[in-house]
Write a structure and sequence with these properties.
globular; two-stranded antiparallel sheet; 80 residues; five-stranded antiparallel β-sheet; mainly beta
């Protein structure tokens, strides 16, 4: 099980394209007892929420260290 941390970015178990040809990663904006608030490259805005359980089902790993400074990862077919 992943530890979900504010400010970290996580990748889907099945990455897909989102927004401007970026990977559909999610950057955690806040964590409460019940919910995870996040930003994704498709909207670029905070305000999206899901339960901890759903986030855990979706997320594969923390990719924060792999991202370009201040940006999102570009989508390429077969990305993991």
């Amino acid at each position: 099980m992943l530890t979900i941390t504010k400010g970290r970015t996580y990748r889907a178990k099945q990455p897909a394209a989102a927004g401007h040809a970026c990977v559909n990663d999610r950057q955690v904006a806040y964590v409460t007892r019940m919910l995870v608030g996040y930003i994704d490259p498709g909207t670029g805005a905070p305000g999206l929420t899901t339960t901890h359980e759903e986030f855990q089902k979706w997320a594969e790993r923390d990719v924060t260290a792999e991202l370009p400074p201040g940006g999102w990862a570009p989508y390429t077919k077969g990305i993991k």
